[in-house]
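Please predict the structure of the following assembly.
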Amino acid sequence: MGAPFFKEIRRAYGFDEVAIVPGLVTINPDMASTQMTIGDHAFDIPVLASAMDAVVSPSFASLMHKKGGLGVLNLEGIYTRYQDPYTALEEIASAPQAEVTALLQKIYSEPIQEHLVGSCVESIKKTGATCAVAVTPQNTKRLTPVAVEAGADVLVIQSTVTTARHVSRSYKGLIFAEVIQQVKVPVVVGNCVSYNTALELMETGISGLLVGVGPGAACTTREVVGVGVPQVTATLDCAAAREEYFKRTGKYVTVITDGGIRTGGDLCKAIVAGADGVMLGTPFAQAREAPGGGFNWGMANSHPELPRGTRINVGTRGTLKEILYGPTSATDGTQNLIGALKVALGMCGAFNIKELQKAEMIIAPSIKTEGKIFQLARD
Amino acid sequence: MGAPFFKEIRRAYGFDEVAIVPGLVTINPDMASTQMTIGDHAFDIPVLASAMDAVVSPSFASLMHKKGGLGVLNLEGIYTRYQDPYTALEEIASAPQAEVTALLQKIYSEPIQEHLVGSCVESIKKTGATCAVAVTPQNTKRLTPVAVEAGADVLVIQSTVTTARHVSRSYKGLIFAEVIQQVKVPVVVGNCVSYNTALELMETGISGLLVGVGPGAACTTREVVGVGVPQVTATLDCAAAREEYFKRTGKYVTVITDGGIRTGGDLCKAIVAGADGVMLGTPFAQAREAPGGGFNWGMANSHPELPRGTRINVGTRGTLKEILYGPTSATDGTQNLIGALKVALGMCGAFNIKELQKAEMIIAPSIKTEGKIFQLARD
Amino acid sequence: MGAPFFKEIRRAYGFDEVAIVPGLVTINPDMASTQMTIGDHAFDIPVLASAMDAVVSPSFASLMHKKGGLGVLNLEGIYTRYQDPYTALEEIASAPQAEVTALLQKIYSEPIQEHLVGSCVESIKKTGATCAVAVTPQNTKRLTPVAVEAGADVLVIQSTVTTARHVSRSYKGLIFAEVIQQVKVPVVVGNCVSYNTALELMETGISGLLVGVGPGAACTTREVVGVGVPQVTATLDCAAAREEYFKRTGKYVTVITDGGIRTGGDLCKAIVAGADGVMLGTPFAQAREAPGGGFNWGMANSHPELPRGTRINVGTRGTLKEILYGPTSATDGTQNLIGALKVALGMCGAFNIKELQKAEMIIAPSIKTEGKIFQLARD
Amino acid sequence: MGAPFFKEIRRAYGFDEVAIVPGLVTINPDMASTQMTIGDHAFDIPVLASAMDAVVSPSFASLMHKKGGLGVLNLEGIYTRYQDPYTALEEIASAPQAEVTALLQKIYSEPIQEHLVGSCVESIKKTGATCAVAVTPQNTKRLTPVAVEAGADVLVIQSTVTTARHVSRSYKGLIFAEVIQQVKVPVVVGNCVSYNTALELMETGISGLLVGVGPGAACTTREVVGVGVPQVTATLDCAAAREEYFKRTGKYVTVITDGGIRTGGDLCKAIVAGADGVMLGTPFAQAREAPGGGFNWGMANSHPELPRGTRINVGTRGTLKEILYGPTSATDGTQNLIGALKVALGMCGAFNIKELQKAEMIIAPSIKTEGKIFQLARD
């Protein structure tokens, strides 16, 4: 044993394994800004809602705008396949667990209708909200022109793993640089987890990068195909690429950690790991206003041959306002996410997100010990 | 992946992950001293009771003095808000779990009455006990003069995260050097977890430093805002600052590990990590004489918008005397804490706390294996 | 403590502790080949079925061939001890748990009949399938000639731990180089877990190497005798030996990770760790066509004095076709193993197994957190 | 954070965190010797039974001799306090759990009777067995002469933590060098866990060293006083001291790992970590012939003020012969310990214990995953 190595393997970390170290200076939370920008759009809070059917409907996108964030509408989901999406949503919510994968496979086999793409975008725009839409690389050329013409402000091109170079027999690999030149809106691309891929994607001219493949411990992508990188390490690496790209070109790409964030603590850790913003699915699927009715599921669940994940009963935890801003009597970190972010900014002496990225982080596994109790400190 | 790093992250350790290595010399426990000093006050045992309403009432503070330690009275809790605090304590103890956060929010919205500050201090002093009181930085200027005039011996200024430099819009940041010059009693400040912050706080002239932010695994501060450092690493770092400051100035600042200590083993490990003393909350909330009646809660639980933690049913485990000195038939380390400390002093050949700090420590995670049993050695 | 070390101990990793990092380039899964070769035999998929009585009967071996893989028949099990093996199989399946070890001991004490060895091989060959048979070193000289004469195509010589140099009083240690010269078919040998042993075995002229001793967490060999190496590290080391041996001689030995693989994710990780193929037991014992009838057990279970492991109720999960190729509605990774492998090939931009071996791998423990849910990404 | 360190902390390992790597050569188990020597006494198997009242009675000591090992009789337990020890044993076995600590405290407050010391030794000697007796340092001078005169062959001086230099006010610290010169039998001393202490103890002239303080995960000494070192690291360090001492002086001290060993796997790992032998308590308390009647407890449990551990219901698992040599149908490693040792010797190509000490060891945490099953390999 020993002798020559076949390959090096590096340790990677997830949210549960790290913690933030308070700063040398502290500030009052009310002095800190939580602003994020994507291209020329500024947002009061660094939070996007995931392009999942159970999370973002056109009306939820509008609500996210009112609360200061950005909801991303999935252009390949129920809303663009059905004139009346709510019947399909209700079918999913009421199906027995054993039949839900088959049902999802059936519901998502209905074709996407381009006129619904346009009307979804318009219904968001007419409320005055910033409109972000998501497509997969395969459908980008077909759906993007319709969406942008209808007024979409931000284009998200997303697949499980996205690289600047994709080889395919069935369709010509999407050249991001071309897409970006053609559409006049900022483009966010993902998902990505490593330094070199992030750098190559940034070189195509993107405005934002989604970070996260198989995030978190119970992630099905890791079980099924073994692929995935924990979010703290993935974010650290993509943030390093952003810094490098900025140093070379002067252009700043927004890094958005996408997936695996359940609490205010996770959100703060993502930013200390280098994120400019975060994208949340399940926490918003738990909002009273979410279209999923207390359930959540992903597009990979409807894969006809290799489904990954399933419909999850996430329950309803409060209004979107309570989830983002409180007040709350929940003490597990799942509500008042922005309040938590402000406290972390204060404890780290950070006046904004960019300064919070500079806070120190340690590796400190959170071992849950039953019945263990701790001193509950004062503010 | 790989290439340049965004930031370094260091491994940190908690009590459950380390153990003490016996010494090259052993001594009989009865030859060892457990003394601790804060400023010019000496204490037989290196133990403080936390400034929590469920732990330290004026009469409990007096009892702690009789047993050789120091109870710290919270000047911003029930005892200074209510002429009759016991009705409020009973209300909290009897509230259903679902309503307790709202109740705490209501009870702690009652204003602090300065005349009760004075009478609390006096009631402790008239029993002959050393009187320590705790305030937050925000209320230090207002409450301290009243308390000191009434006879307080030790002033504790405590918030979740305390630094020598705090920036605030709503009140002028407290300058510790000024406070320390004005009050004539030793000042203990906290909480703090890192070398540089500890050093800066020591440079303001403090007599003692409280170590611990979000200690322990299940700590809510870590869940809610992601901030926290495990106690062994936090203590090691603050002790390093104490040594450095002593080398530079000849002044010795007492380092007190505060939070996350449940057993005699934890207490001993805190000292081997460099603490001069420890502050305990829950272990004393479990004393028959504790005012919480078998419950414990922290001030952060009553935060109107972002409560962290909740009321915990800690039960009653014995008298304060049994918890500190035994005898006991409990074998889980939660009783006879000082007996345990003496055994550790003996096993490490340490004649006092200062020598125990020099013992060797190893990283040795305690994996609980169900049904696992071990040889039970003899003394 | 400290000072001179008695010995170095190196960290080793298992499947649950690592994950695969996506590539800089991605490809469409349908462009990737999953081919594996052993000697001059090529297989469509890099998968062998274990030489266990509950997994491979002559008819299951034939079915594996039809599906593109290779089933290995155990020449020292029930099929060569009983004219009617199915009665014995049914006895095992229906025995109460408390009596099963004794029953296995009794059933496996019946002598091996050489004429059954021949007829088993012939019954596989006449279906047109490639026929692989397994023997232990002790019985190699006696059983191999019969099997090869009857038409066996691949010879597997397997024991818990196999080295090129075995010292024995009771029988002359098997010299692999001699066996390999005599038999005209490719020889696969194992099991082995370390670089030097792998290299020595390769120097005897073998065509394939089985990797794995006490793989996985709950493995009984590790409990009973303390011996075992987790599969990722074992595979990395044996793959390093294969590279070294190829560099020296130009001969390529097929490295097959054997044991501990339960999901598509595990299979993909084995290959990224350097395997050319994998050998699966329990996943195939769960096939509707498996002879074990929903149970599995190993030969070590029938050891008369030191049984290791027991009969396990593995249940029936689907047809062999579903387990290998789907479609499936299972989302835990136990079905559509080849579909998963193809997705991993795509995500890593690998056109074949050899290229997938070059993918990056990270250490990322999968901590199962109850109730934790994650973003479910889209393809 | 960061900057100067207060102290270094080294990672230590226990049995559950390591595994043995098979050797480059394998041998048939029947060619290997399991012999151990202590001073001029040779034993067929490297196994001692702990000086615990529930494990070794005079008749059990005699039985251990017949089986090739060595039972150590506790000279400060029930057998030397009561003419009729069996009544006390039965009282302990039948006491309700809540009252057992108090009962142990009462039973062990009865004084030791010197004439019973003599008669215990004689009753062992007259069966022809090698007689080993254990005393604490405090009672060594008083009890040793009686025991040696009665015929004791090996003297064990044991306390939780033993060093060559002990400082005491109440009795003059035992000088081992003096004791060793006076008694004419080999002396075994312990317990000890570190290199320097081991070396100092060896320099006093001892023949054997017991290794282990607070071994194992659930050990109460670690909970109560925080002191303890996992057994693999402790053994590695003490074995390093033995090698160093042998190099300097040519004298070989037997290193015996004491505590935390539950399975054949643990036993083998202790030896690969450098032990010449092991001392077992609970595995033998589970023997049908053990005096504890299915229970076990340690002397520390009867400490009047700080009990550590409690009476444990260990059950009865088989005869001593079955536990040591099988045959067994248990598959969890708790039976046929010597059979397991022989298999490990074979897998590592070791002809004796000394050669097994040279086997390679890896760090490989055994994560128990419910429902996980693995390939069960063949011998």
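Chain A has one domain: 15-363. Chain A touches chain D at residues 1, 21, 360, 362 (CB under 8 Å).
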